[in-house]
From TrEMBL:
<feature type="transmembrane region" description="Helical">
    <location>
        <begin position="91"/>
        <end position="110"/>
    </location>
</feature>
<dbReference type="GO" id="GO:0008028">
    <property type="term" value="F:monocarboxylic acid transmembrane transporter activity"/>
</dbReference>
<keyword id="KW-1133">Transmembrane helix</keyword>
<dbReference type="InterPro" id="IPR050327">
    <property type="entry name" value="Proton-linked_MCT"/>
</dbReference>
<dbReference type="InterPro" id="IPR011701">
    <property type="entry name" value="MFS"/>
</dbReference>
<keyword id="KW-0812">Transmembrane</keyword>
<feature type="compositionally biased region" description="Acidic residues">
    <location>
        <begin position="469"/>
        <end position="479"/>
    </location>
</feature>
<feature type="transmembrane region" description="Helical">
    <location>
        <begin position="303"/>
        <end position="325"/>
    </location>
</feature>
<keyword id="KW-0769">Symport</keyword>
<dbReference type="InterPro" id="IPR036259">
    <property type="entry name" value="MFS_trans_sf"/>
</dbReference>
<feature type="domain" description="Major facilitator superfamily (MFS) profile">
    <location>
        <begin position="23"/>
        <end position="448"/>
    </location>
</feature>
<feature type="transmembrane region" description="Helical">
    <location>
        <begin position="21"/>
        <end position="40"/>
    </location>
</feature>
<dbReference type="GO" id="GO:0016323">
    <property type="term" value="C:basolateral plasma membrane"/>
</dbReference>
<dbReference type="InterPro" id="IPR004743">
    <property type="entry name" value="MCT"/>
</dbReference>
<protein>
    <submittedName>
        <fullName>MOT3 protein</fullName>
    </submittedName>
</protein>
<keyword id="KW-0813">Transport</keyword>
<keyword id="KW-1003">Cell membrane</keyword>
Length: 543
């Protein structure tokens, strides 16, 4: 798998993920972006009462601000994928940080609720979407062997920021009012630009230039000074150009790759995730009101969400470490199924909890299972489609999830208003999550694993999509070493003379032999034997 030439309009070959180094800085940036993306729409809710008083609207009207943010975060997935494929992750994240910040700053000057929808809802939501998706793509670029742990640590940003942004918003509201709080929150969102700036792409440009210069230097050292040297250099360059010309057609990259729908694993994952989102967010949304209806005081009811967040902080990195184990990672889809099954059964078993102790136990187990789901959801998607197609895959998945987000929680709220019974809602939400877990596990076993057993083993093709970055990068390095061993020998003085003589004898053999496969006789017998040995050595090395 050769390296592409950017000057000829080809994409650079995938680089082996470093699994560390600057990747830890990228991981921290992804941690911050994930925290803002998931926690900010919930943290804004502390300003809703003041907004209701100033704009004379109801709670449902102000709740649309958070809903629009989440809808933009999920629904603009394909747009983010197209922009990332066209311009790269870093420029898109810088623009997203500016949009998110300017949305909150402009919201502090609004005079009606519609203007808040357009600024804090649409503009800020779009900005966070342009940050969230590219950060996950960069995380998959920098990590391969440690990717499950990296995903778990990055996902921990959501509960950490939720536990800090909500109290901070309350303090800002008391001291500066909602307008001052929005203005300061907009300033905090400028940190997304800083996180975008550290997303340095893995580039092979400098390495390719150094290798090209080294090739020419070794060619000059190998061959005698004069025409032979120039001929050797031109032959080396011609061989490289011929290889690049052959590989041009497969290097085109689409703005949005719909070919991932031909991947059965991706279809199974998408269906399962849609069913999951229908019920996953319902319990934490209704938990506080459910506790109040059972007679729990307001302060203690609000503390239940803090318990979930605190457990979630530790559950996500721990689950990432478990998923990274050698004997677990090949079966990460089944671990994800177990996490969803654990979450659904927690909802079902806790539906009849009627006291505060039972609700606390529910929050502990829900925090563990919810953290496991959050840590594994994108790791499973990366494992299915590979990092090369992840930018398109995550955009399409988020778009499909957006419909589930708009269907699940609102439908649950209407059922509560109609039935006046939270128990049925918990049963329904838990059943949906359990159904998604069973579907993913059974479909993965029946459609994927059995299909692999029936199919004969195929040769590894580095150009095929869906493979890991490590395997593709290692194949690049191996081919580069083979290419260098075929064309270059050590640049010692005695070896240079033998190689030059062998090549000259080889040319004489081709001219004298009709078939071109024999060795010359007569005066050049010794050199002919050397040239045959050299050719045989090259042939063995090439295999």
């Amino acid at each position: 798998m050769g390296r592409a030439d950017p000057e000829e309009g080809q994409l650079p070959a995938p680089v082996k993920p470093p699994d560390g180094g600057w990747g830890w800085i990228v991981l921290f940036g992804c941690f911050v972006i994930t925290g803002f993306s998931y926690a900010f729409p919930k943290a804004v809710s502390v300003y809703f009462k003041e907004l209701m008083k100033d704009f004379h609207v109801g709670y449902s009207d102000t709740a649309w601000i958070s809903s629009i943010m989440l809808a933009m975060l999920y629904g603009t997935g394909p747009v983010c994928s197209i922009m990332v494929n066209q311009f790269g992750c870093r420029p898109v994240m810088l623009i997203g940080g500016l949009l998110a910040s300017s949305g909150m700053i402009l919201a502090s000057f609004t005079t009606n609720i519609i203007e808040l929808y357009l600024t804090a809802g649409v503009l800020t939501g779009l900005g966070m979407a342009l940050n969230f998706q590219p950060s996950l793509i960069m995380l998959g670029t920098y990590f391969d062997k440690r990717r499950p742990l990296a995903n778990g640590l990055a996902a921990a940003g959501s509960p950490v920021f939720l536990s800090s942004l909500s109290p901070l918003g309350q303090v800002l509201l008391e001291k500066f009012g909602w307008r001052g709080g929005f203005l300061i929150m907009g300033g905090l969102l400028l940190n997304c630009c800083t996180c975008g700036a550290v997303m340095r792409p893995l580039d092979m440009g400098m390495k390719r230039k150094m290798e090209k210069a080294q090739d020419k230097y070794e060619a000059k050292e190998m061959l005698p000074i004069g025409g032979k040297s120039e001929e050797g250099i031109s032959t080396t360059d011609g061989t490289k150009k011929a290889k690049k010309a052959k590989k041009k057609p497969k290097k085109g990259k689409k703005l949005l790759d719909f070919s991932i729908f031909s991947n059965r694993g991706f279809i199974i994952y998408t269906i399962s995730k849609f069913i999951l989102v229908l019920g996953l967010f319902v319990p934490p949304i209704l938990l506080v009101n459910y506790a109040k209806d059972t007679g729990v005081p307001d302060t203690e009811a609000a503390f239940l969400l803090s318990i979930i967040g605190f457990i979630d902080i530790f559950a996500r990195p721990a689950c990432g470490m478990v998923a990274g184990l050698k004997w677990v990672r090949p079966h990460v889809a089944y671990l994800f199924s177990f996490a969803m099954l654990f979450n659904g059964l927690t909802d079902i078993c806790s539906a009849r909890a009627s006291n505060y102790t039972g609700l606390v136990i529910f929050c502990v187990f829900f925090g563990i299972s919810y953290g496991m789901v959050g840590a594994l959801q994108f790791e499973v998607l990366m494992a299915i489609v590979g990092s090369q197609k992840f930018s398109s895959a995550i955009g399409l998945v988020l778009l499909i999830e957006a419909f589930a987000v708009l269907i699940g929680p609102p439908s649950a709220g209407r059922l509560v208003d109609a039935l006046k019974n939270y128990e049925v809602i918990f049963y329904l939400a838990g059943s949906e999550v359990v159904l998604s877990a069973l579907f993913l596990a059974m479909a993965t076993y029946c459609c994927l694993n059995r299909g692999k057993k029936k199919e004969p083993p195929l040769e590894k093709n580095p150009s095929a999509g869906g493979g890991s970055d490590t395997e593709e990068a290692e194949s690049d390095v191996q081919e580069a070493e083979e290419h260098s061993s075929d064309n270059h020998q050590p640049a010692h003085s005695t070896d240079n003379a033998v190689v030059a003589a062998s090549e000259e004898a080889n040319h004489m053999a081709e001219e004298q032999s009709g078939e071109g496969g024999g060795c010359p006789e007569g005066d050049g017998e010794v050199l002919a034997r050397d040239s045959c040995n050299a050719d045989q050595t090259v042939e063995r090395d090439s295999f």
